[in-house]
From TrEMBL:
Its main location: cytoplasm. Binds actin. GO terms for molecular function: actin filament binding. The lineage of its organism: Eukaryota, Metazoa, Chordata, Craniata, Vertebrata. Residues 407-418 have a biased composition (Basic and acidic residues). SUPFAM superfamilies: WD40 repeat-like. It comes from Sciurus carolinensis (Eastern gray squirrel). Residues 407-432 are annotated as: Disordered. This is Coronin. GO terms for biological process: actin filament organization; cell migration. Keywords: Acetylation, Actin-binding, Coiled coil, Cytoplasm, Cytoplasmic vesicle, Cytoskeleton, Membrane, Phosphoprotein, Repeat, Ubl conjugation, WD repeat. InterPro entries: Coronin (IPR015505), DUF1899 (IPR015048), Trimer_CC (IPR015049), WD40/YVTN_repeat-like_dom_sf (IPR015943), WD40_repeat_CS (IPR019775), WD40_repeat_dom_sf (IPR036322), WD40_rpt (IPR001680). WD repeats lie at residues 77-111, 127-169.
Length: 461
């Protein structure tokens, strides 16, 4: 009786290729904060990473092409008064990024095309509502201006950034302990959360109801992370009772037993899962690891298939994941990670080996584009929609920069003057910049006078 020994898959030979030294971002001081987030966020325009900052919290935003050694005086986004714990780019506007911090606030920033020329201290809007540090921020995948934040006060808040108001609240009655991870479903109708009480929950956020939950998906005490994958399934990473790392796949309609459960190794780092819905590949990156494992998810048993592992010598402090529209399709690149070292950010391209450099339609089905499918009001009113798909056949052409508009009278004093639609700063913005420059010049003159007086004193002695 003959049987097929090796499963056929076009992704069996996917390999990771680290960027050359001149394509890395050198001499960046990555944050030392102990928190299980990626510390890095990427989109087709910018790479952002949380960095060390004295007297507050800051993160660095660099244009994607600005590789090489980063100047130690490069301007940062530095409006938080305590360390930043998580950052996330808006999927519908590549110039807008949200940050959550130990100072209990969420801030939304607008980055000008070309990057920062001055330190950015004033956010477009500050979202205040948490009573403890905010460790998770994540944007709705299809509705415009909807942002979710989760804090150590065991509360999840859903914000309408366009009005600056919290529109939905999931209080401590839903999560009685620290929330480890939150992930939106592909159409944004549900969220999947993991909590310190050892439960994974699937929640309808607009109704505030728990649709399904699983107690102890992994027997260990270390943090569990959960993400939605294809066809109504969720994938969890956690630890066994013997502290072995595990990955499991679950059917959300039948959470009694996992569809697949695999033990990986005995490392202590929490595994962060990144799922690609276009290829059905999930990548597992552990903080403190020096490897990236990847698995393919199929609709038939055994459902979760190990593909391979990318290994390097140095361990990773964090990881950023590029959306599909930022990849080089002519090189058959199906994913790109931005690995944070202690003093460096290194791109790693995941590539399918193909001889032809023509567009490979089987590798690049239509993918989520930058346009929202719904307004915030439509989603809050009960509508759901999958992402608006675009083809990458002729390459991705970024849309014209959009201005983030916040209609909140109370917040007008805190808002930064943002560029007009055409990219030219408004007259208010120019006058404010001129005022800042005058103040800086005055400060420099005063410092020079004090220096002259000190020199005279030293010479006199």
């Amino acid at each position: 009786m003959s049987r097929q020994v090796v499963r056929s898959s076009k992704f069996r030979h996917v390999f990771g290729q680290p960027a050359k030294a001149d394509q890395c971002y050198e001499d960046v001081r990555v944050s030392q904060t102990t928190w299980d987030s990626g510390f890095c966020a990427v989109n087709p325009k910018f790479v952002a990473l949380i960095c060390e900052a004295s007297g507050g919290g800051a993160f660095l935003v660099l244009p994607l092409g600005k590789t090489g050694r980063v100047d130690k005086n490069v301007p940062t986004v530095c409006g938080h008064t305590a360390p930043v714990l998580d950052i996330a780019w808006c999927p519908h506007n590549d110039n807008v990024i949200a940050s959550g911090s130990e100072d209990c606030t969420v801030m939304v920033w607008e980055i000008p095309d070309g990057g920062l020329t001055l330190p950015l201290r004033e956010p477009v809007v500050t979202l205040e509502g948490h009573t403890k540090r905010v460790g998770i921020v994540t944007w709705h995948p299809t509705a415009q201006n909807i942002l979710l934040s989760a804090g150590c006060d065991n509360v999840i808040l859903v914000w309408d950034v366009g009005t600056g108001a919290a529109v939905l609240t999931l209080g401590p009655d839903v999560h009685p302990d620290t929330i480890y991870s939150v992930d939106w479903s592909r159409d944004g109708a549900l969220i999947c959360t993991s909590c310190r009480d050892k439960r994974v929950r699937i929640i309808e956020p607009r109704k505030g109801t728990v649709v399904a939950e699983k107690d102890r998906p992994h027997e260990g005490t270390r943090p569990v992370h959960a993400v939605f994958v294809s066809e109504g399934k969720i994938l969890t990473t956690g630890f066994s009772r013997m502290s072995e790392r595990q990955v499991a796949l679950w059917d959300t309609k039948h959470l009694e037993e996992p569809l697949s459960l695999q033990e990986l190794d005995t490392s202590s780092g929490v595994l962060l899962p990144f799922f690609d819905p276009d290829t059905n590949i999930v990548y597992l990156c552990g903080k403190g690891d020096s490897s990236i494992r990847y698995f393919e998810i199929t609709s038939e048993a055994p459902f979760l298939h190990y593909l391979s592992m990318f290994s390097s010598k140095e361990s990773q402090r964090g990881m950023g994941y590029m959306p599909k529209r930022g990849l080089e399709v002519n090189k058959c690149e199906i994913a790109r990670f931005y690995k944070l070292h202690e003093r460096k950010c290194e791109p790693i391209a995941m590539t399918v080996p193909r001889k032809s450099d023509l567009f490979q339609e089987d590798l690049y089905p239509p993918t989520a584009g930058p346009d929202p499918a719904l307004t915030a009001e439509e989603w809050l009113g009960g509508q759901d929609a999958g992402p608006l798909l675009i083809s990458l056949k002729d390459g991705y052409v970024p849309p014209k920069s959009r201005e983030l508009r916040v209609n909140r009278g109370l917040d007008s004093t805190r808002r930064r003057a943002v560029p007009e639609a055409g990219g030219t700063p408004s007259s208010d913005a120019v006058s404010r910049l001129e005022e800042e420059i005058r103040k800086l010049q005055t400060t420099v003159q005063e410092l020079q006078k004090r220096l002259d007086r000190l020199e005279e004193t030293v010479q006199a002695k």
